Amino acid sequence: MSADAIVVGAGVNGLVAATYLAQAGRKVVVLEAKDRLGGACRTASFASGFQGPTLAHALYALDPRAVAELKLARRGLKFAVRDMPLVLLRADGKHLVIGRDVRAAARAIAVHSRADAEVWPRFRRELFDLARAMRPFWWDEAGKKMPAAIGMLHRLGLAAWLDSQFESDAVKAALAGDAAPLSPLAPGSSLLLVWRAAQEMCGLQGASAIPLGGPGALIDALTAAAKIAGVEFRTGVHVSDILMKDGAAAGTVLDSGDEIAASLVLASFSRRQLLATRAGRAAFGFSQAAELERSVPAAASAKVLLALNTPPAFGGIAVPLRGRFVLADRVETFVTAHAAARAGRLPEELPMEIVFPTVGDPALAPLGQHVVSIRIAPLPRHVTGGWDAARLAAKAIAALDRCASGLARHVTAAQVLTPDDIAAGAEDECVESVERMLSHWPSRIRTPIDGLFLCGAASEPVGAVSGRAGRIAAALALREAAR
Amino acid sequence: MRYDAAIIGAGAEGLAAAALLAASGVKTIVVERSERAGGRATTREFHPGFRASPFVDELPPIPADIHWALDLSRRGAIFRPAPVSSAIWPNRQNVLRRGDASSVHRFLGAATERASDIRAHAAREIDNAPRHSFFPLFKAQPAPASWPGEGWMASSLGEVLAREIGDPDTAAHLAAAALNGRTADPLVTGSALHLSTLDSSGAVTGGLGRLADALIAAAREAGAELFLGRDATDIRHAKGRVTGVGLADGSAIEARAVISTLDLKRTFLSFFQWNALPKEIVHAVGNFRMAGATARVLLALDTALSSAVDRRGAIHVSPDLGDLAEANSAWRTGTIAPRLPMTLRVVSAADPMLAPSGQAVVTVTLGAVPYRLFDGAWTREKRDVLRRQALAALEMAMPGAGAHVIAADVIAPPDIEEALGATDGDLAGGELAADQMSSAWPDFPYPRCPLKGLYLAGSWLAMSATCAAGAAAARTVTADLTSGKLK
Amino acid sequence: MTKPLVRATPFHARTAAANLENAWVTRNGITLASFHTDTNDEALAARLRVAMADISWRWRIMLEGARVVEFLSKLVTRDVSRLAPGTSLKALWLADGGGLRGAAVIARYGRESFLLAASAPDMDWIALAAAAYDVKLRDMREEGGLAIVGPYAQATVNAAQLTADLEPLAFRKLSWRGIDVTLSRFGEHGGYEIWCAPDDGILVWDRIARAGERFGLMPAGVAAMDLLDLEAGIVRPERDYAPARDGNANGPSAVALGLEFLIDPDHRTFNGRTAFLAAREKEAKRLAGIEIDSDRPAPFTPLLLKGSAVGHTLRSVWSPALRRAIALAQIDVSAIAPGTKLTLTLPPSLAVPELRTSEARVSALPFLKVPDPIVP
Question: Is A332 on the interface with B (CB under 8 A)?
Fold first, then answer.
């Protein structure tokens, strides 16, 4: 069979790319190895009567242009929670809620430090200003310039930056939670905060949001948009190699041996995954290939879904359940967790991000009951003796129980995805680095093979559910094809 | 008395600055708390008949042009780079000879070159103001130029060594050599910057004290005055500019320029009233991170040793990247790790004058030793922990040597602080981190600072090159005096 | 302390006996005679009669595996897939950035086995690259190799009863009166090479020496062979240029070393191709010969045209055949026409401790053509 363009991988980026290509008049076929579409975006049943976000649970980096131009709202994308406040949970009950309202946040911070409360408005304003100034670089393919302050932050570790601005552990820990992919000691990890602040969800800068129906609903809307544009889907189909002709991509070869011809191929691979194909191995230089083989993600993540038969109740300061919860006492928790991840050890304190999707979307669970979604990161990819899912879940529940006393008793079911489970799905293959964050789009999307473009999460500046890589890769591919 | 330049601290930086300033005709005086000049470039008798340099055995390389300008060789300071460096584990060794194994040789050459590029870049920054804004957060400025240290800033020590070296033993050996008494997690991004310190000038025949003597001679012969045994207590300033240095006995030295060779924190915290300083200085000093992590154990042995390892160079004991990471973790929490990074040097093997005939001096450099212990002060028990680890290291490298130890002198971080005025006992004068490698004040590249007439020349600024900070300060002061900036 | 080793070749007993001045040199870690009696005599013997040189120092590895052709297609700058067993070609390999890493003869032994024979080793790079293709590497340096060079080389080989109708670049395994040898014609000087097992070295040497005696065969040391190379315009890594050792290096340029002819731009898959093609337009220097109006060689010296620098010499020797000093040089395209007059400064030496300038003339390469074989 043949098409004008093949998109490999039906995650958010693949679906976005395919729809843009189809809207430009190309005949597009999407090839997905799994039996379902969506990649990391999935809402699934994990216990009788309970549904939860399998992997990604709160979106913060969705591309506003793709959302608008693909008319996703019209295709059914609605949001259960917009603008989730950041909540730092502490064992001593002095939780910190940092919402959009700067004054309210300052009042909350004042409980921990008056000085920090005074710094907060200025810090927040300057962070958001800098983040907006970085948007041309991060949002547009053509963006080349960055503000000078990035030069300083490029060298600065997040821990050092936060220490220089704030004095209270609470504020620093809350903000450090957002920069989980890199160690707070790594130079340039400060930029992760800027990256997050540069995003826009539901028209709000730096917001996080949960779709109604979970991340799966995003996929449904994207699939609908794609189908209306004429995109064809084939699931259960694994691509083993890129078909080559005269030194350029000419389609894909499937595991079955079948070939699909197309002059444009957009793949949701990372460069390392491309190296695993014969065509990729031949195309990369030896030195480049060796470097790609050496680059392995430093940290992995795990996901826990809990079924709760009562609403969660936190002691101490009142917290909004529609928030995004971070469980950590100090920045050092993240430093230690990163060190443990690299050493292949489970950290004493698990760094967790927790979300209660049922608060805005009660349909996910039976009446009065709730879903708890926990993302644990960073974790080592492997631990000695192998991953014990039950032990991991127990540890996570115990940590949460320390802040919401009695929660453990109300857990009626649990689903755990260990780093092994997540790797089996070939998600999370991205190596986060500052270089990647500050490189240009074409350098992440183009490959040494003419006609082959990388459109997946590995082509984003930071791995996140976004769709921007798909949009920009499609535009770049169309332009190159026109030449 | 009125001088053009007053220098606080007669260590290598202060003496070099004095010699160069005086040679350009600048009326210069150096004030030093101790009765003896030299700072860490000193050799002391720690046990009757046994001598060693208490703080360091070797210094970072002295740039060639400064070496010649100060005529150090003819003044008696002859450097001997170690011909060999070893690492030893219970069941094996790894030996690196200078000029040996080609890929290691190439790597070391490339690392030395990059370190030199970083220094040159920093030197250029002295003439062109750097373009980073630290406080406030966002200020429109032209984009920063690319920095030679960026590659290392983006990598971890472990990554770079795995890539360039391959052999895990050699990699661990070089990681230990790069850290050299400091502490870092070799697996965290940015730790590769420690590779900029792999090079050293080598040992000085007769001990580091000979270097101090050569520098003192250079300074005196150039016409600088040395005021020893005088404690500087404050730096006088009025109307936003520095006017001189106050001494403990109540007297004062008037000077148009004051050079401080102490670290950033000590300079501003001990010589000024906090509330009299500009906000930007207060902020920068408060945020500056120290990373004091070195302790030393000096051992006197009543026998000349034979050993399983080549005694002519450094002997790194059981280097292991995982241990280095764990030691760093422990250090961060104020505890002493069970396996501290340790390096032995049989200093009397290369320099027989340090010990009586037929006997030996071994120095042990321990890294990841916290200045502040989480459970209290540096008691004798705590020092014994260090002593025991050092002796265990000695026994591993030279079986049987432990029985011949007749004296062991422990020098913990607070002792280093006390002796050298180094905050937190940090011999490097500050954490080796990318953001601390350029000036804290965008409009005042080092050696300048927001206070007019005050110049900073601590060793931490030299980017691992001895005498370079002093030389840079001397150059800048001379230029400012000539151009009339310091009326 | 480890004892210093003399790493000798299978012919060491014979070369040692012939090495009257005890003049030894090390190449690729192997001890070889620099000259036996006199470099110029030996070089002239190779040019006028026949000479025998110990070439066991050359780096040789066998590459074997089901995907070896795929691997070599990526490694080297020419297509080897159509090479018939028993034949060879010469090619280069480049770093990712287009910089020249090495040059070798690639000889096909079988469908899935090739020999790579080069002057300088590059094991790390090739082993790293080969691992991804499951290609096994076997070090062949134990074998001894002798080069037989000169107009009477063919006659010598015939007289030794090494019968083989070998085309240039071909090779064949033979059983030669009881010993197994490989006879090849890889070399650039129109002669032959014999490769044998280490234990057979002395026997092979003696047979060839006897066969060539009446043609005036002499053993030639490394210096004489280097001289021959220079007269022929042949550059080798580590002797004439520093090959790239950084995986991303963009230099040295194959174009500037006169080796572009060993790159097939239509061979689409070789490593560093994109970078090489991009850089080749901009390369302004080419390789040429320089004849110096002097007896004193002038290596690594700037060349001036009307006072401005247009290039520099590389290796330089006194040529006994041309009776003057010659040099290989890298010269700007604008000044490279044969006959162009340049000046250079002759470096001072122990004998002549002063600077002198000299005239020099650009010469096309090779300085001297390989002489035709004489078969009586």
Answer: yes
